[in-house]
Design goal:
Protein name: DUF4276 family protein
InterPro entries: DUF4276
Number of strands: 4
Number of domains: 2
Pfam family, one: DUF4276
Structural class: alpha/beta
Organism: Caballeronia zhejiangensis
Largest sheet: 4 strands, parallel
Helix content: 40-55%
Shape: globular
Distance between the termini: 12 Å
Radius of gyration: 17 Å
Number of helices: 11
C-alpha cells in the first residue's frame, strides 16, 4: 500500500481528508495520513514557511517509502510565504496557484534536495476550503440546515467560472460568504458534513485544480 502524508492547515482540512478522501483512496491501495501542521496537539493555522519546511522534512526523511503533500488555503497565507507577493500580482486564479506552488517547491528543494523532493506533491487550495463546497450550492445549503439559502448560494457560485475562483478577501472569501448568510456556520463541524452531502465526484467535476491534485496522488498506484 502506498502511504501519503497530508500536511493540513487546520482541523477542517484534516477532517475532510480523514472522512471524505481517505476511504476513496484506500480502495485504490493508497493510504492517506492527514496531520495538522506543527507540533502534535497544535490546532494548525499560522502557516509560516519555516513550520512547513520542518513538517515536510520530518515526513520525507522519517518515512523514506512514503510520499508527502500539502492541503492548505491560499487565502490565509502570510505575505512572507514564498511566492505569495508575486502571486498577488497575477491576474487569474490558475496563475496565482502556479506562481505560489513553483516558489514554494523551489524553496523546499533548496533546503531538502532533489532526492527527498521526488516524493513531494505540492498543492494549495484556491482560495479556501469552502470554495469546494460551492460545487453544489443546493446540497451545501441542505447540509448546513439552511435550505432557504440554496438560491443565494447558487447566485454566488454562478458569478464565477469555477468554485475555485470564488475570491480572496476578508469580505468575499468563500467562508465569509457563507457566514454572511448563516452566522452559525462552523468550519470543522460543517465542512466535512457538507462535502459528504455534495459528494467527491461532484467536487472533482467542478474544481479542476483540486481534481488535478487528486489525479496526481491516484497516479502513484499505477
Amino acid at each position: 500500500m502506498i502511504r501519503v502524508h497530508v500536511i493540513c492547515e487546520g482541523q477542517t482540512e484534516e477532517t475532510f481528508v480523514a472522512e471524505v478522501l481517505a476511504e476513496a483512496f484506500a480502495q485504490k491501495e493508497i493510504f492517506l495520513m492527514p496531520a495538522l501542521i506543527g507540533k502534535p496537539g497544535h490546532k494548525g493555522g499560522n502557516l509560516r514557511f519555516e513550520r512547513l519546511l520542518t513538517d515536510v522534512r520530518n515526513r520525507l526523511a522519517g518515512d523514506r517509502d512514503a510520499w508527502c503533500t500539502t492541503f492548505f488555503d491560499y487565502y490565509g497565507l502570510p505575505g512572507g510565504f514564498p511566492g505569495k507577493v508575486a502571486a498577488e500580482t497575477m491576474r487569474t486564479t490558475d496563475d496565482k496557484a502556479v506562481c505560489l506552488l513553483q516558489a514554494m517547491t523551489a524553496e523546499l528543494r533548496r533546503h531538502l534536495g532533489d532526492n527527498h523532493m521526488r516524493r513531494f506533491i505540492p498543492y494549495v487550495q484556491m482560495y479556501e476550503f469552502e470554495g469546494l463546497l460551492f460545487s453544489h450550492p443546493e446540497r451545501l445549503a441542505d447540509a448546513i440546515g439552511q435550505p432557504a439559502l440554496n438560491q443565494e448560494f447558487r447566485r454566488i457560485r454562478d458569478a464565477f467560472d469555477s468554485p475555485e475562483s470564488i475570491n480572496n478577501s476578508p469580505m468575499t472569501a468563500p467562508s465569509k460568504r457563507i457566514l454572511n448568510h448563516f452566522e452559525g456556520y462552523d468550519k470543522p463541524v460543517y465542512g466535512s458534513i457538507a462535502a459528504l452531502e455534495i459528494g467527491l465526484a461532484a467536487i472533482r467535476n467542478e474544481c479542476p485544480r483540486f481534481d488535478e491534485w487528486l489525479n496526481r496522488i491516484e497516479a502513484l498506484a499505477q
